[in-house]
């Protein structure tokens, strides 16, 4: 093996930091040691990986290409290390979970909190993932299970619907539409409309519904983030079409059901090649119970009463959720 693991580690550190000094600090080794390893790597591989320009290391094209492979290998090595650690922890281990961003603050936060309280020995790693990336994460073993806001169609995924929801309209309190019990897409189109970008699943869903209703007006603002759509409504930029799960966290907005149904089907997604780890089933049990509770409350966040509250607009703290 010409390219040793230690050489890969030092090469990657230089690429990340841009210097021998930075790599040495990152790896807690001396600068001369890092420099020798880089020089030895270039000699054994017979590749020039860096050009020295005014005292700085600039990657060659070959160095850039090699870094892509090394970094991918390094990330996989980290996952192997984490997996080995979880084996050493015994049956407790680690559970890696992802969900669509719009389900993070309600369904997933409640489920994870209950799971952690009931099974303190099992560590949970949680991330939000767009629908377009969910299959790759599951089949690449980056996560053990995922929860999607819309069903995924993939031959190697097992998809089980757990609840049902809708897209809704959000308008400012006091808006002309706010007094309605439900609103049509045609009525919404009379105002500046804020929707998800058509490349996103939510955007495709909304634009398809608009076309079906023969509404030709283009949206005034396209966004990639659901919370941003709500924030824009709060600032008077228009009215928006969003999922009911995100809308539940904006009580300062008036949430209106749509006369034209746009159904959402949050679903549990697992790999068909999953080896049946017991703590996944434990998580699914709690997740299903929380989903049933939310379904009964109409998708509102646990512990709250569904329905709008009249408050001054403010943007909620925390990262913005991406559409889909």
TrEMBL record:
It comes from the Bacteria. InterPro entries: LysR_HTH_N, LysR_subst-bd, WH-like_DNA-bd_sf, WH_DNA-bd_sf. One of its GO terms (molecular function) is DNA-binding transcription factor activity. Signal peptide: none annotated. Residues 3-60 form the HTH lysR-type domain. The keyword Transmembrane helix does not apply. Residues 297-324 are annotated as: Disordered. Keywords: DNA-binding, Transcription, Transcription regulation. The keyword DNA-binding applies. GO terms for biological process: positive regulation of gene expression. Belongs to the LysR transcriptional regulatory family. This is LysR family transcriptional regulator. It comes from Teichococcus oryzae.
């Amino acid at each position: 093996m010409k390219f040793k693991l230690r050489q890969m580690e030092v090469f990657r550190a230089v690429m990340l930091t841009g210097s021998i000094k930075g790599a040495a600090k990152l790896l807690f080794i001396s600068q001369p040691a890092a420099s020798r390893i880089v020089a030895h790597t270039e000699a054994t591989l017979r590749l020039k990986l860096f050009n020295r320009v005014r005292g700085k290391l600039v990657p060659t094209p070959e160095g850039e290409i090699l870094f892509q492979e090394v970094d991918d290998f390094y990330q996989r090595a980290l996952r192997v290390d984490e997996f080995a650690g979880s084996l050493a922890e015994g049956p407790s281990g680690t559970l890696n979970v992802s969900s669509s961003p719009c389900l993070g603050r309600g369904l997933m936060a409640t489920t994870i909190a209950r799971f952690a309280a009931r099974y303190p020995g099992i560590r949970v790693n949680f991330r939000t993932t767009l629908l377009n990336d969910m299959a790759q994460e599951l089949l690449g073993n980056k996560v053990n299970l995922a929860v999607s806001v819309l069903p995924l169609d993939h031959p190697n995924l097992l998809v089980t619907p757990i609840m049902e929801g809708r897209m809704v309209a959000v308008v400012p309190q006091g808006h002309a539409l706010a007094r309605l019990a439900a609103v049509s897409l045609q009525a919404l189109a009379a105002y500046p409309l804020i929707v998800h970008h058509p490349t996103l699943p939510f955007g495709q869903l909304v634009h398809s519904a608009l076309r079906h209703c023969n509404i030709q007006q283009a949206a005034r603002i396209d966004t990639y983030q659901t919370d941003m759509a709500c924030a824009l409504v709060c600032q008077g930029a228009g009215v928006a079409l969003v999922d009911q799960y995100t809308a539940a966290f904006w009580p300062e907005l008036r949430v209106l059901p749509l006369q034209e149904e746009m159904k959402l089907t949050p679903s549990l997604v697992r790999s068909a090649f999953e080896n049946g780890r017991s703590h996944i089933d434990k998580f699914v049990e709690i997740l299903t119970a929380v989903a049933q509770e939310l379904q009964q409350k109409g998708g509102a966040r646990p512990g709250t009463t569904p329905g709008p509250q009249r408050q001054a607009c403010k943007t909620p703290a925390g990262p913005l959720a991406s559409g889909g």
